[in-house]
User: Fold this.
Amino acid sequence: MRWLLPEHIEDILPDEALRIETLRRRILDLFMEKKFELVMPPLVEFTDSLLTGTGHDLDLRTFKLVDQLSGRMMGVRADITPQVARIDAHLLNRKGVTRLCYCGSVLHARPAGPGATREPIQIGAEIYGHAGIASDLEIQGLLCRALAAAGVKGARMDVGHVAVFRSLVQAAGTGAGLEGDLFEALQKKDLPSLKGLTRKLDAKTRAALLLLPELYGDCSVLEVAGKKLPRLPELQKALSTLRALSDACPIPVSFDLAELRGYHYHSGVVFDAYCDGVSGAVARGGRYDEVGKAFGRPRPATGFSIELRSLAAAVKPKKKKK
Assistant:
């Protein structure tokens, strides 16, 4: 019993370790070829900086401990992206566009899903200082190239945009309380609750919010959304961004306009990448302009992270039948 590891924590044995290391080198080489600079944030830091601007979900996933030197609360990182945002905002402090990449282990207090490890290995890339669609396109293209370099099969992407929902509730003046309830109902695709919550809203907003859970699928979703959703400037801009991303993406794309993952963290496009051999998302990303603001330096940002262990499992060679 003394040799047992904690639940969802495991050793990486030679075959898997070799696949992970091969992929790590291949993908980092790709990032640096595209002029992304490598950074290595610490495994632990004080929680007041580690969790700045990240929302409640990351707080719950973070292991916390007391620093024996200062007496202050520290956290073991559950996501590297906020750390990279801190480095951009306060250590590099550059003007103009900065491209950064990273790779390292993170630790989750609870597994992200059934059978998931609590010690994922994240490899990712971020662009800071550019607010236009060009950086969203660059990040999407880089992710697709990384998946191709890894040799995965059946790569595909699911894309959403938090401004679709956000523009609707802001135009309706719902207030924070109702906005939160509507968010929860949409996340759960709970139509009865959504109908009840929207009963007192104006007819156009109510119809739009009730339509969102149905706006899932291929490019035809964007056509329906353009015709049936209110012509709010931010909403129409979001749809235009999604069309451009779809046109440029070299892998199949589907859309989910009720997808609000990271709603309190992301500020624009959100996307998940999938491939054969992995049950959940192998990579996640999007635009998160508000993180820099949380660090006291407003700075547009977009990027993604790949779960390297999942990626290695996806390219694991099949055993030959005897």
Observations:
- Residues 72 and 165 are 38 Å apart (CA to CA).
